[in-house]
Amino acid sequence: EDQVTQSPEALRLQEGESSSLNCSYTVSGLRGLFWYRQDPGKGPEFLFTLYSAGEEKEKERLKATLTKKESFLHITAPKPEDSATYLCAVQAPGSNYKLTFGKGTLLTVNP
Amino acid sequence: NAGVTQTPKFRVLKTGQSMTLLCAQDMNHEYMYWYRQDPGMGLRLIHYSVGEGTTAKGEVPDGYNVSRLKKQNFLLGLESAAPSQTSVYFCASGSHRSPSYNEQFFGPGTRLTVL
Question: What is residue B95's predicted lDDT score, i.e. its pLDDT?
Answer without folding.
Answer: 86
